[in-house]
Amino acid sequence: MAKFRINILGCGSATPSALHNPSCQVIDFRDRLMMIDCGEGAQVQMRKMNLRFQRLTDIFISHLHGDHCFGLPGLLSTMALHEKGGAVRVHIPQQGMELFRSFVNYFCKETPYSIIFEPITGEGGVLYEDHALTVEAFPLYHRIPCYGFIFREKPKTRHLDGEMVRFYNIPVSQLKAIKEGADYITPEGDIVPNSRLTTPADPSRSYAYCSDTMFDERVAQAVKGVDLLYHEATYGQECEGCAAERGHSTARQAAVIAREAGVKSLLIGHYSKRYRDFKVLVDEARTEFEAVTGADEGLKIDLL
Amino acid sequence: MAKFRINILGCGSATPSALHNPSCQVIDFRDRLMMIDCGEGAQVQMRKMNLRFQRLTDIFISHLHGDHCFGLPGLLSTMALHEKGGAVRVHIPQQGMELFRSFVNYFCKETPYSIIFEPITGEGGVLYEDHALTVEAFPLYHRIPCYGFIFREKPKTRHLDGEMVRFYNIPVSQLKAIKEGADYITPEGDIVPNSRLTTPADPSRSYAYCSDTMFDERVAQAVKGVDLLYHEATYGQECEGCAAERGHSTARQAAVIAREAGVKSLLIGHYSKRYRDFKVLVDEARTEFEAVTGADEGLKIDLL
User: Distance from the CA of B225 to the CA of which of A57, A98, B38, B254 falls in 20 to 30 A?
Assistant: First the structure.
C-alpha cells in the first residue's frame, strides 16, 4: 500500500528537555513530507530520522506557542543552505502570521526555494488538496487560537483483475471507468459485472492531530472515524484540574475522545516533563480505550 | 581566584548537526552568567551544562545570522517558565533589533522577569560595566555588521598581609587606601612601605570573542594582549579562498591573529561541518601559534 507514515520528531511539552523535544511530526505521504508543528530542534530531528529537506512541501503550525513553532526559522534557513528547490508553504494561524513572516524573511533573504505563508483563519477548513490527499484544519480549545489537522486520503479506485481484463480483451479506454466501478459491456452486448473484473479499492486512510487542547467533545465530533488519532495527553488524571486550567488534557480524557470518535487507534504525546516515563500515561489511557500508543522521538507509524 | 570561566555550549557553524551545536558560549564571572551568541538549542545546552537560568543577566549577540541568534526566543520563553526573576539585557546589533524585539515580545508576553533589548551600534564600545568587569564590543569583518566582545576584569586591589596589619595595629579606616597601594604612617610618624603590608594584586584577566570574521589585522589590534582569544576557524588553509569569500577565517589565520595580538592562548571554533574532527584545524593553527585549544561542546576553561 502507498506510504502514509507518521514520524514523531518531538512529543514533549513546553520546553525541550533531556527526555523529549518539543512538538513536531512529519507525515510521509507517498514520499512527500508534510510537517506538523515545528518546535526548537526540528531540523536536527529531521536529519537524525533521515527525512530529506528536499521532500518537505508543507508545514502546518497548530498555534503560536513557542514549543510549536520556534524551530521554524532555523529549519527554513538550513533548508536554504541545503539548496532545497521548489517551495514550502507554511500554514500558520493568522494572528501571528505577519510577525512570523517578517522575522523569517529577514533571516532567509536569499533562499533558493520560495517560502509561502498561508494564514489559517476562523474555523479552519481545507488547507491543502491534491488528487490523493486533503488536509483540513479544525478548531481546538486551548488558551489561544489553536487548530487540529486531519490528513485524509481521497477515495481510491478498485483494483483491476489483470487476468479478467485479458480474458475479455477489454480496451484500455474502458479501464478507468471500470476501476471506478462500471460494469463492462462486451461488443456482443453482454454485461460483465464489475465485481468479476475488480477487487475492492484499498481503504482511504486518515490521521488526525490534536495538540494542544483541553478536553472537549467537539474534538471527538471533528475527528470522527479517523484511523489514527494523535491527541495530547499532557497530564495524568491526578492533574485534571491543572489540565483544564492550562487548556490541556489528561491521558484518560484523550482516550475518552478516541472512544467517542470511534477511531481505530490512539497516539498520545505532549507529555509534561513531570512524567519521567510516559508509560504511566499510556496505562491510564488504556483504562478507557484499548489501542493506545505513546509517542516517542524516532517512532514511525505506518497507516495500513 | 574569583571565577572567570568560559563554557562552550556550541562551536559549529551554519547549521546544528550531530557533531556540533551552533554558536553559544556562557561566561561565568563570579557566578553571574553572561551569554555570547545564542544558536538554536542553547537552552538545552545550558541545562546539560548545569548553568542556571536564574543567574543569566546579559546576552550578547554578535550578528544577525540565524546560527548566532535563533535560540533566543526559546531560551527567553523557557526562562519565564522557570520563574526567573530580575532582568535579562539582550545586546544586539541595531539593524535587526526592532524585528527581534517584536518577535520575542509576542511570544514572551508575561515573563516574570524583564527583557531589555539594547542596540549595539557603530563601532561598538562599552556595553556593560560594573565594579569588577567591563564588556566592550568592537567591529569584526563579516558579510553583515558583526561585533566581537572583550570581557575585561578591572584592576584589582593588593592583598593585605593580615599578620602585618595586626602587628602594626592598623585602623580599619586605613585599609582601603593600603589595598590601593598607600604606605602606612604610624601614630609615631614612621612610614611603613606598602610592600611590607601587602602582596601584589591578582592579575586582571581578559577574554575576547571573535566570531564571525574574515582575517583582518584590525582584529589583532582590537584584542591586543588578552589572556584568552576565541577566534573563529571555520576552515583549513585548503579553503582559504572560500573563507575570504564567505567572510570567515582559516585556522592558520586565527593563529596569526593570536600571535600578532600577543595573547596568552587561543581557542578556536565555528568549525565548518566538512571537518568531522576539529583536531586537523587545531594542528594547523599550531603551526603558527603554540597555545591552541579546540572548542567543543561541554568544554569549560577557567582563566587563571
Answer: B38
Q: How far is residue B273's CA from residue B287's CA, in Å, rounded to a whole number? A: 22
pLDDT digits (tens, 9 = 90+) for A220-256: 999 999 999 999 999 999 999 999 999 999 999 999 9
Establish whether this prediction's ipTM goes over 0.85. Answer: yes
**What one-character DSSP code corresponds to residue B298?**
T
Interface test with B, best of A101, A103, A109 (most B CBs within 10 A): A103
How many C-beta atoms surround the C-beta of residue B231 within 10 A?
32
User: Cβ–Cβ of B70/A78 closer than 8 Å?
Assistant: no
**Out of A76-90, A141-155, B247-261, B290-304, least confident range:** A76-90
Q: Using an 8 Å Cβ cutoff, are A263 and A225 in contact?
A: yes
Is B102 close to A99, i.e. CB distance below 8 A? yes
Please state, in angstroms and rounded to a whole number, the distance separating the CA atoms of residues B56 and A218: 44
CA distance A229 to A181: 31
What is the pLDDT averaged over residues B159-171? 95
Size of interface A-B (CB pairs under 8 A): 84
Q: Which of A67, A16, A54, A81 is nearest to B12 (CA)?
A: A81
Pairwise CB contact (< 8 Å): A43 & B74: no
Residue in this structure with the C-alpha cell 533562499, named with its chain if needed: A111
Question: A18-22, A69-73, A121-125, B212-216: which has the minimum mean pLDDT?
Answer: A18-22
Residue A121 grid cell: 483563519
Radius of gyration of chain B (CA): 22
Nearest C-alpha neighbor of A62 from the set A149, A126, A3:
A149
For all residues of chain A together, what is the average pLDDT? 95
Is residue A67 part of the annotated active site? The answer reads: yes
Q: Three-state DSSP class for A23?
A: coil
At residue A235, the pLDDT reads 98
DSSP class of residue A218 equals H
* Residue whose entry in the numeric block shows the C-alpha cell 514550502: A88
For chain A, positions 200-259, list CB contacts with chain B under 8 A: none
Asked if A70 and B74 touch (Cβ cutoff 8 Å), the reply is yes
Catalytic one of B67, B212, B216, B227? B67
Question: What does the pLDDT look like over B18-27, one tens digit per residue?
Answer: 789 999 999 9
Cβ contact A60:A50 at 8 Å: no
Residues pairing with B266 in the sheet: B229, B292
Model confidence, pTM = 0.91
Q: Which of B15, B44, B73 sits opposite A16 (nearest CB)?
A: B44
